[in-house]
Amino acid sequence: MDWVRGREIGHGGFATVHLAATAETCPSGRPPVMAVKSCDAALSSSLRHERRVLSELGHCPRIVRCFGEELTAERGGEELYNVLLEYAAGGSLADSMKSRGKPLSDAEIRRHTRSILEGLEFVHSKGFVHCDVKLQNILVFPNGGDEVKIADFGLAKKAGEQPAKGGKQGGLEWRGTPMYMAPESVNCNEYEPPSDVWALGCAVVEMATGRPAWGSRAESNAYALMIRIGVGDEIPEIPEGLSEQGKDFLMKCFAKNPKKRCTARMLLKHPFLALDCVDNDEEVARDCGVAELADSSPRCHFDWVSMQCSRTSWESSSLSPFAEMDSDPSFAGEHTPSEIWSDSSSAIDRFVELASHERPNWEDSEGWVTVR
Which residues bind ATP (predicted)? Predict the structure, then answer.
């Protein structure tokens, strides 16, 4: 064994997580500090499944990395199965929010949501569904600005694969956390990419309010919550303090019909996320296999001119990911992209005028205003 087990930093129903320090003889590619997820070798089917999923997914900057697996003989003759993972010094996003004691700002929500979506788009493009998206499974890496990554793939499944029967809930298997479950998961035992998008919407509500999407009382009675989710038209309450773009983003996540719910790829182009692009978006998107999305959003005011993103071009463009949704009233969403961008044409005209190739004559005093 070329690593040393340290203190416990977390535990769940299937495994315990410890810090792990690598030895001097450690193979190249392993960092000096890792997180090792361990369980009894005889009860390791779930953890082995997580290892297989991570291996098939491959590397993406928005997913926690896996550095291999090992069997170890512990004191007393116990044999443990271990998965070596990337260590997140900031813990989970749920822990981070609890320690700060207040909701996240709009800018923080946009940044984290974009990162999670990039990870989900990668997972879905590889033919998998995470099935347990929640703040507890989003890990924070504080080096350089609180980067977040998706973790815990123990419940992940192949898209299109039917879940096993024979569970405790009337012969059906529940996957994930009730407060994050989508209507189709409750009603039809269906866990496909749209259910991850619904769960993401619940995570965004929690980031914006500091409370679970269905309220704190939902934790006490899972069956009553299932009825609320699966029956009728009720959706989680949209936070009043969120921007109009953020509210529209959530409405796209909370379409009750999964066939009319936005995909992760579509949501990456939503104006809510376009407001806060980071410098390394192209590199991250390319590494995650979504390079074509990186250039879809302006990075400064003058990009509007070069993109020719007027109200007319936005509404008429067949490339708009929301064009079909805005033309079909059966799609969820109170605020359409055309409404969001309706005030932009006058500003664009002004930028076009400012972008003239003629050099201005600063010596001409006509039109100047004296300021004291």
Answer: 37
